[in-house]
Specification:
The structure holds three protein chains of three kinds. By secondary structure, chain B is mostly helical. Chain B contains 15 helices and four strands. In chain C, a hairpin with a 5-residue loop joins strand 3 and strand 4. Chains B and C meet through helix 7, helix 12, helix 14 and helix 15 of B and helix 6, helix 12 and helix 14 of C. Chain B: Keywords: Cell membrane, Membrane, Transmembrane, Transmembrane helix.
Amino acid sequence: MSDEKKTVLSMRHINKTFPGVKALSDAQLTLREGEIHALMGENGAGKSTLIKVLTGVEEFETGEIIMDGKSIINTSPQEAGNNGISTVYQEVNLCPNLTVAENIFIGREPMKMGRIDWKTMNTQAQKILDNLELEIDATQELENYSVAIQQMVAIARAVDIQSKVLILDEPTSSLDEGEVEKLFKVMNMLKKRGTAIVFVTHFLEQVYAVCDRITVLRNGHFVGEYKTEELPRFKLVATMMGKEFDDLADIKGSGTSSKKQSDEVVIEAKGLYHKGTIKPFDIKIHKGEVVGLSGLLGSGRSELVRAIYGADKPDGGELYVKGEKLDVKAPIDAMHKGMAYCPEDRKVEGIIADLSVRENMILALQAKRGMFKLMSRKEQEELTDKYIKMLQVKTASRETPIKSLSGGNQQKVILGRWLMTEPDFLILDEPTRGIDVGTKTEIQKLVVKLANEGMSVVFISSEVEEMLRTVTHMGILRDGEKVGELEESELSQENVMKAIAGGDK
Amino acid sequence: MDKLKKMTSYRLFWPIVCLALVLLFNLIKSPSFFEISIKNGVLYGYLVDIFNRSSELIILAVGMTLCVASSAGTDISVGAIMALSGAVSVYLLGSGETYAIPWIAAILIGLVVSVLCGMWNGFLVANMKIQPMVATLILFTAGRGMAQLITGGNNLYVKVDSFKYLGGFLPHIPVPTPILVAIIVVILATLFLNKTATKLYIESVGINPRASRLFGLNSTKIIFITYAACGLCAGIAGMIATSRITSIDANNVGNLMELDAILAVALGGNSLAGGKFSVAGSVIGAITIQALSTTLYAMKVTGDQLPLYKAIVVIIIVTLQSPEFKKYLNRIKAKRAAKTAGEKVA
Amino acid sequence: MAMVEKIKNKLRGNGFLLAVTIVLFFVLYIAGAILYGDRNFTSPQVFLNLFISNAGLIIAAVGMTFVLITGGIDISIGSVIGVVCMMLAWMMEVKHMSAVVAIILVLVFGVIFGLVQGFLVAYLKIQPFIVTLGGMFFARGLTALISSDMISIENPTFLSLANYRIYFGFITYYNNRGVAMHPYIYLSVVIALLVVAISFVILRYTKFGRAVFAVGGNEQSALLMGLNPKVTKLKVYVLNGFLASLAGFAFCLNSCGGFVEQARGFEMDAIAAAVIGGTLLTGGVGTVVGSLFGSLIKGIIETIITFQGTLSSWWTRIVIALLLCFFVILQSVFKSIREKRLAQGNEK
């Protein structure tokens, strides 16, 4: 029955390249009238890019988008809107300084005698909000409301535009259960009306609660389109992560089982938390241990380490470094205690784009030593050369600006920056994202080597396989909460995926 | 070809070319331009004059460079700080036949005032997170008023001869003192920036404050320091300007100098969006502005018409620096290339 | 009860800043009335003089408000006013053009000036500060190029416009000597108030006006919601150029002449007036009514200092700087309170 539904939109053979990265290759998506379609994939799978291509935020190189039998190309969000595609983005894309009503209506305000009819606008907006059972005042400025409410307003706006295709790009990450329920109600209502909805989320329960079909992308490739009822939960996780269950046995054996264990506790957190991102958690990390943190995007795996390192100052709980209590006011405090942190977002939080490889490498060590103890040029060069050689950084010279290096080499420079400080405890958040396979293996090997030399490492990656190869045990996170740990003996791809997915369902 | 490319990509290439063009133009117009002679034991000549007159601007530009680099903002209060610190010193020295308090004490107190002003700006920008332009607008508005308050609204004169030394000549030294002071400031600043990690810190904070925090830099402190330093530079420039006219004229000392200082920073090839900077570039920028002014004066352009030509230079430079403009040019180039390629195929 | 709630809601956030400004104006006025009531401070003419002497500032501050709401800045306003006065004087006195033609030409000049600045800001994405710094130099230099000497305007049409008094016949008061007087305003005040009223309507009741706020609130969002930020910004700078030249005309009605140094630093007065009126320099927030009161606050401080007699005029600038400081810190505190409250709201 559902197969006979009319196709509203189809994207075929979409290719898109960012400098140095193939973001989409031969990606596709098919939307039918009155269906809710989940678009799934891990970090870097190309979900966001595919949506940006569809809504005209990004251009694409080849492929075509067919809507109602006609080929279309959207060059701007306005054009996408005119073609009947409206979008709710993950980041709230509204104007905080305008009222709620305006945010719903801007660009299409009701007019009376050549001027904006505020009264009608406010009452209409209030009606829309009431329909969504949102108890907020449409005449208030948006910035007076929480991010969750703002997200609901964005949804209200998109819904009211009554387009043929509605794209919801991770709209639920800031919503609580009640709000998600409301959203689902609206989605089901729109579905009955015949709207095709693309739903991007990293919450698996939500996929199974509302979606009719699932399209999975991986590394920019189209993996497959499935009916929800035909794809069990852990199979979905496996599809997203790219491993068939039959292959599992091979990987298990290739892990390094010779990891030394020590009883010396390097890091211990008790009830550490950061409001709104990570719920109170306990964790113990021993000397020479590689701890993996696993969970889907947004599960709190990054936020957990950020709280330990003081990148986001924790709102409560206690942290002990080698048995000593530590109050982290700023990352420098953590650094002085021997911590190091390679952040997830290399571009925003890692590199200093205009500075040279040398400057980028020595910065952390220099900051640790203090402003007035400038390292001599000779020392800087020797250390930089040492780590360029050790990490095999491919750069024209040590004075090349880091921005002209490839992603993988930038990552190595950042790694070098931290190794130079000779830390006891190294946090690596997605150190291998977006870099080639060869470099990935090098980094994995390095992690194991460092641990064998006595360094404690936290390793976070979206690729379970990669973690299985390197970690001694693993913490599992779901929805901002640390929900469990897997010991070395329990580590298998299947167990991890089941733990991430939340059971056998 | 490669060599040329390498040369043009050198940071200071275009600023130096600008300055060279201005000087060359003068050389052609009046061959005596580069002549330097000694009259009455002091140096004379166009070049000396340009250098001498640009001293205050050079000193201001050094401080401004730091603010721009660390906070991507401009300190528009430097002119007012010049007037205020000058007024304090002159007031303390008094208008008697001898100094009311020792010269050095008056100068030091004046400089302390300027540093306090800079720290106030730094506090607003770094700690209160107020946009630099707005934060410094406060002192821009109040600074001259406070200076007037100190002088009682009159131009105060210092009658002691030795007061002229700073803005004129020291006995038996043929080089104008402002040039010496400017050189000392530039050298000290360069040493401090490069012999400590300060330059690296400022650039890092200016380019990516978030990443800088993660590897242990305190951006609040660093931005604060740059504004305090900028205040000090303004104070020094104020002392020279006051000494030149052996008096304080709170309305006119340093008037509009803040704009020239910002212009000097931009002309020196420094991005006003912060980040990597070159003090040497700003110095070249400052000298270029003065050379341009001197040249235009020589061409019978009056002082008050000067801004017109400055404006044209500013707009041309920033347009050429604009990434959007470059994108636009590239698009035209690409189109042309596509066209010729198409013709070849045809 | 509902009324109280409504007012409370209005006063939350940015409405509060505007309320502080308006209250401050009346507090200053009442303070002046108490201190100098015996010297006719309360006479209607003294009140109206606030408008007469600040008509140009009001217009300029309104234009500045538009620019500031988009998150930009324009520091060329003072120079534009200067060059407009000079052009008017030169065209009428040296070139003997008719007053009407001269006025139209300077307004066209303002529009073109704004168009160029707007293009550089919106389409070439050059920082507004630098663009308008160039504009400032350019206009000031142009003034000097036209004439380095002062030109007084003697054109009869222009002078009759300048001296045209509009009396409020229904109000009568008695001056120091006990003579019955009617208070009056000049043409420039009418222009200024019209500008405030029209700008208020534009900002509040037109799509363009709301787009101005949206662009200042979040340019990226505005784009994604289907607005065109570039065009909006361009229009704002054009409007501002026009208002700057109109302010120049109003200014000239008061000064009746042009000279090189005229209206130097006026842009900072306009910015100060807008900031005191509750406009945020980060963009997205501002009202023309606030800017009107911001301008009047400067006027009332000047008036009080004049009445006081012994304080010199630079006190005006110091007091304005203090107010500026007060408002800037108030805004900053407000922002952090809101952020804190939201952080807690997000927690739940």
